[in-house]
Design goal:
elongated; 5-stranded mixed β-sheet; 294 residues; 2 domains
């Protein structure tokens, strides 16, 4: 599988903020609308960073939950890069490419959004800019500088996206994948999940690293090797690990149930980001950290 070469490719998204409760009627666009939208996206980006005209633009004309765009290896962008590499006309100058629904209106598997993550108020369309490493580096740096503050899509771009997807869009703006990651980190902070973000960030930016969440009273987690191991305690093991007095354990049944709910919440978030969660049973009297590191 082709990897995303970040020396030759800048990664971003068109983020669509939807009106509350309104789900887009269409998951992906047919070829003509996809091409029109990609053309407007290319124009907008070139207005923000003129040197972007020297790069190929490749757009996924399908919308996803932000978590799907923030998965190890930048999986959506990797699929886009694979399609770009196979598209005709590679030696004819910078191309504008768009991929969405096929001629029958079906959505190819690489761009089928996760149905379990549908319904959120923010949907994203991945795009990438590809070309000579020196130009990509300059454009990437410029996009990091300007998009967060000035990256609103032009009105006709937002209107076309709204009409084509059958959506009610409040705002449409361009973000780099790092901008999107920062936005999600803030969102998780507001939701009381800030302690989980370092594991997700490690998977995105330093996949070969190791990261722990070992902050009581939170669940014990370890990221390594592309997966997250989560300590699974029975009530006695939970009481022992978190230092509760044995005589209090029977009275802490509800607190233990809340702990299990927290585990399920964290597992759901990690899996939304494409991180498999492996539960490791840890018995009282055993070193839980050692069990997760084994």
């Amino acid at each position: 599988m082709t990897a995303v070469d970040t020396a030759e490719t800048a990664l971003g998204v068109l983020a669509l903020e939807l009106s509350g409760g309104h789900v887009p009627a269409h998951a992906a666009l047919a070829a003509q609308q996809a091409g029109e939208l990609a053309g407007l996206i290319g124009r907008d980006l070139a207005q923000l960073v003129p040197q972007a005209r020297e790069l190929e633009l490749c757009v996924a004309a399908a919308h996803f939950d932000p978590a799907e765009a923030l998965r190890p290896g930048w999986s959506l962008h990797r699929r886009l890069a694979e399609l770009r590499a196979r598209a005709p006309g590679r030696n004819e100058g910078p191309r504008v490419l768009a991929f969405g629904a096929d001629a029958r209106g079906d959505i190819p598997l690489p761009f089928q959004a996760d149905a379990a993550l549908a319904g959120g108020s923010l949907r994203v369309l991945p795009f990438l800019l590809h070309g000579e490493p020196g130009i990509v580096a300059a454009v990437s740096a410029a996009l990091e500088e300007v998009l967060l503050a000035q990256g609103m899509a032009q009105p006709d771009t937002a209107l076309l996206a709204q009409q084509a997807f059958g959506a009610q869009i409040e705002h449409a703006r361009y973000l780099t994948v790092h901008d999107l990651a920062a936005m999600m980190a803030m969102q998780y902070d507001n939701q009381g999940l800030a302690v989980l973000w370092p594991l997700i960030e490690a998977a995105l930016l330093a996949p070969d690293s190791e990261e722990w969440l070992a902050q009581a009273p939170e669940p014990l987690l370890r990221y390594a090797g592309g997966e997250v191991r989560m300590a699974l305690f029975d009530p006695a093991g939970w009481c022992a690990y978190y230092g509760h007095d044995r005589e209090q354990c029977e009275r802490l049944e509800r607190t233990y149930e809340q702990y299990l709910m927290r585990q399920r919440q964290m597992a759901a978030v990690l899996e939304a980001h494409g991180l498999p969660v492996l539960y490791v049973h840890c018995e009282a009297g055993h070193d839980a950290r050692q069990s997760l590191a084994a």
